[in-house]
Each structure stands twice: as C-alpha cells, then as structure tokens.
C-alpha cells in the first residue's frame, strides 16, 4: 500500500513567550494539523491568536517549547534551513534602495539561479503579481500594496513546492486581493502546497481546500468549508468564525 507523507505536519506544538517584564504570554497550545501535498490550507484567527507564531515555527525562526514539525515525513530541526520552501513574512521589509528587479535578482542569486534564467524568472514573476511595469522603480517609492506584491513574487523565486505565506493580501486593494488569490489558485493547479494565514474570510473561503480556526492559541476547527458549516450549524464562514471566537471569550 502506498503512503504519502503530509507535505507539512505539526505535532503538539506549544509556545509560551516571556514578555520584557518576564510575564508568561501563552501563544500556542498543543497545535496539531497537517497539509497534504498539493493542498491549500488557510489559518484564520483574530489578532493575537498565534498565526504568525505558527508560521515562524514552520520556518524555524521561533523555537517551540513542545512538539515537532515534519516536512514530507522528515523532522525539521529548529533554525535548519527550509529547503524548497517560499516564505512571505508578515512584515515584509526589503532593502529600500534596490529597484524591484534588483531585489528579485538578488533573491534569485541566493536561490542559486543562473543570471540569464534569473532575468527571465524575475520578469515572469513580476507579470504574475501585476508588477511588470514597476521593475525599475525603487522599493522605497512603492506603495504598501505594491511592496506586498513584490514580497509575494520573492516567495515564489526558485519555484518552490511549498509556500508559507503570512497574510499574503495584507495592504492590497480589493482588485489586488482578488488577483493574488487568482495567482494562488494557478499555483495550486501547478501542484504547489500552500499554507497561509489571513484575517479575510472571503479569500480563505475562495481558495482553501481546508480552513483552520485558531483562537487564543488553540486550533478550534480545521476542515473543508462545507464540513465546518455542517459541524457548527452555520450558514456561512463568518458565522462559524464568530461562534468560535465568542465561545472562547465567554
Ligand atoms: N516575541 C514575542 N514576545 C512576547 N510575546 C509575543 C511575541 N510574539 C508574539 N507574542 C504574543 O503571542 C501571542 C500570539 O501572537 P501572534 O503574533 O502569533 O498572533 P497573530 O495571530 O499572528 O496576531 P495578528 O493577527 O495580530 O498578527 C500574542 O499574545 C502576542 O502578543
């Protein structure tokens, strides 16, 4: 019998930060879920729910207190480079003095892409994120939304199989958000595995195979949209989300 390991698996992850005043700040409690190869999974949660902490642990930037992370069945050590993985951080701040093209070429260089192919890949990626006409604009002259598009292009440099994106549509106007979601759909069709966090229910709903709801560091639900509606006797995702957040507030 053939068995395919999940692309990503989080097993019993827990994290409590220490504030500057040495207070304990619980961020994640016994977080377990997996993402299958070729699947898009979205994590929804209110502010402070632990979404970015989850992403940073996946990338090896924050060490969990408990639990393990596996990529394709292989345990990932903390701070070990994540191979074949594209990442968009929550606060994306590229070098402001480079042009858009220079910035992406720099990332192509880091990914070991030869110069000629790097030029071509950069142009293609900029077209995908609607930034091809801004290739020669300095990063510090971009709007927030334009910068976010460059961040997204950067995450796809080297054509990674796995994408970990922290709020990929943050700062984008509605048309821009829709374009980014369309782009993620084409990437899924090309076989990519995508895990992302968001506050925007409609986009998670549109693109994700499964949706997780994280509240106060606990994964309350994770399933297909239809199964979430059925389990919670809800009409739409907004209702599911509100019920889960409110039940934790009581
Ligand atoms: N470096 C840190 N030191 C102390 N506490 C932290 C640190 N990073 C995050 N936290 C706390 O951990 C909890 C989870 O934060 P996290 O940034 O993961 O949430 P989030 O769901 O991404 O929030 P948002 O939607 O506002 O970006 C919060 O209570 C936050 O204040």
Can you describe what's shown?
The chain is α/β, with parallel strands linked by helices. The chain has 2 domains: 1-84 and 162-185 and 192-250, Rossmann fold; 85-160, no CATH class. The chain contains 8 helices and 10 strands. It has helices spanning 51-59, 100-110, 115-128, 144-155, 174-189, 201-207, 225-232, 237-249; strands at 8-18, 24-35, 40-44, 66-71, 74-75, 85-88, 162-166, 193-198, 210-215, 218-223. The strands form 2 sheets. A 6-stranded mixed beta sheet has the order 6-7-8-3-9-10, sandwiched between helices. Strands 2-1-4-5 form a 4-stranded antiparallel beta sheet, with helices on one face. Strand 9 (210-215) and strand 10 (218-223) form a beta hairpin. The longest helix is centred in the last third of the chain and has 16 residues, at 174-189. The radius of gyration is 18 Å and the shape is globular. The mean pLDDT is 92. The structure holds adenosine-5'-triphosphate. The site of adenosine-5'-triphosphate (ATP) has 12 residues, from strand 2 and helix 1. Adenosine-5'-triphosphate binds next to strand 2 and helix 1.
